[in-house]
Write a structure and sequence with these properties.
Strand content: under 5%
CATH architecture: Orthogonal Bundle
Largest sheet: none
Number of domains: 1
Helix content: over 70%
Order of helices and strands: HHHH
CATH class: Mainly Alpha
Number of helices: 4
């Protein structure tokens, strides 16, 4: 049974991933109905997942790739591929 904000927050990723059973979903929804801070946390978590998912859609320019490889190679003592 979800009784605290800490417990609710611990289950939110599973909730968004549709990994909770119906009882856990109902308990979380009941908590969210009465807890504005947890609703705000859930909104933020959803938005973070959206933004992170779109980051992979952005292609890094070739010059930036080259500089990043050189930087990492220099820092790790390796050679640039």
């Amino acid at each position: 049974m979800i009784t605290t904000c800490r417990e609710a927050i611990a289950r939110m990723s599973d909730f968004l991933g549709r990994e909770l059973g119906p009882i856990d979903v109902a308990q979380l929804m009941l908590h969210l109905a009465t807890c504005a801070p947890c609703r705000a946390y859930l909104r933020t978590l959803r938005r973070t997942i959206q933004v992170a998912g779109r980051a992979a859609d952005v292609e890094m320019p070739d010059e930036m790739k080259r500089r990043l490889r050189a930087f990492l190679s220099e820092r790790t003592g390796g050679t640039e591929p």
